[in-house]
Amino acid sequence: MPRKRVLVGLDIGTTKVCAIVAERDEDGEVHIAGMGRAPSVGLKRGVVTDLDATTRAIQEAIEKAERMCGHEVSSTFVAVSGQHIASQNSRGVVAVARSDRQIGESDVARVKEAARIAAIPAADREVIHLLSRHFVVDGQEGVRNPVGMFGTRLEMEAQIVTGATTLLANVVKCVREAGLEVDEMVLEPLASAEAVLSAAERDLGVAVCDIGGGTSSLGIFIDGGLVHTVVLPVGGHHITNDIAVGLRTAAAEAEKLKARYGAAASYMASEGELVEVLGVGDRDPKVLPRRFLVEIIEPRVDEILGMIRAQVRGSGYQQRIPAGMVLTGGTAQLRGLAEMATDRLGIPTRIGSPENISGLADTVNSPAYATAVGLVLYEARGRGEAFAARDRDGAGGGWWQRATAWLRGALQGE
After folding, report:
1. What is the SS3 assignment for 288?
2. pLDDT tens-digit profile of 337-365?
3. pLDDT at 211
4. Is the pTM of this model over 0.85?
């Protein structure tokens, strides 16, 4: 029997916690073996606001995934989002160490460390990712992998992603209280991109936006790498709240109405279509034109798309993403969103669902599961620092292990 590696991804969102357990076989194929989800009430805009509630939701989602796949899991890759996430460009420069001037793995490690040191974050922030954009060997730009090449000077253009130390520590604490260790934290649009973007789109230039319950995470990829990211404080929960207030109904009912009858633009609701809206408490239900519902949704969708457009324009990369925009996340399931986004953003837009997976693929074939599926693909493809360190050293190591050890020390000292 071929040996399989168990992969675990945990998406802790504002409206739901989703756990994915997958297996990677010796051929590199990723098979979804289990999925569990639980309502999330302990987060607001990607930030933990109730430790106990978040821990319980993680436990419930993990237990459901374990029952489905028949595996017990002990560690996981975790998606991270929230307005506290920030990114910046950095550059590292080193001299090639070997006398024969052949670039080795140690030179790459040194130039990465130089790039990290060049962008040391404030004391209250932690580096989540150091992402290589490209290398420069003796002035020659655009080098993807310099190992084995000859040169005297090695440079690296990198993207540094950081987060607030205390907010990251709260996420780690919830995961640990749920009985798991954090292998690595992964930026949400980076994870989502693994599930919904093709290599051709990354190379050509593309933007991906994961519109979740409380936040919308935008990432721009050019020449295969992430060059810009930002997290916006708006998402599907705001649409649901608008419906609840506008139609005077409970939030749970508003969510059902949005999913069942919602659309991005009012012209998408035909004349004469009616929907029943349950009242709050003992109030009788009422029947209203579906157009009323969509007219409540449209302004909020327009606002979200306007914020995304402003960020794309402000990034300076608008003219370098000919592959357009890929929308994913639970809110991306809203009818007509891609068409409205294409018009509002002025670039071709599609909805992204997880691809290149097998096993229980139908179970997770939805934009709502893009981040969780992307996490296991991220690990399977060796994107993570922790994964690369384990494969290289056989015992773990690297910057993420040091950062996690620091967080653990902070938690143990409370």
Report:
1. strand
2. 999 999 999 999 999 999 888 888 888 99
3. 96
4. yes
Alpha carbon distances (Å) from 129 to 68, 114, 242, 285: 32, 14, 35, 50
24-34 confidence digits (pLDDT tens): 888 778 999 99
Q: 């009616």: which residue's tokens?
A: 274
Domains 86-164 and 236-294 in one fold: no
Report the CATH fold assignment for 86-164.
Dna Ligase; domain 1 (3.30.1490)
Extract the tokens encoding 270: 């035909």
CB distance 177 to 217 below 8 Å: no
- Of the candidates 232, 226, 235, 229, the one whose C-alpha atom is nearest the C-alpha of residue 307 is 232
* Distance from C-alpha of 92 to C-alpha of 70, rounded to nearest angstrom: 45
pLDDT of residue 123: 78
Domain limits of the chain?
Answer: 86-164, 236-294
pLDDT at 393: 37
- The answer to which of 51-55, 56-60, 122-126, 322-326 has the lowest mean pLDDT is 122-126
Q: What DSSP string describes 166-200?
A: HHHHHHHHHHHHTT-EEEEEEEHHHHHHHHH--HH
CATH fold for the domain made of 236-294: Nucleotidyltransferase; domain 5 (3.30.420)
CA distance 226 to 222: 7
Distance CA 401, CA 6 (A): 20
Q: How far apart are CA 181 and CA 303, in angstroms?
A: 38
Instruction: Tell how many helices (H) and how many strands (E) occur in the chain.
Output: 12, 19
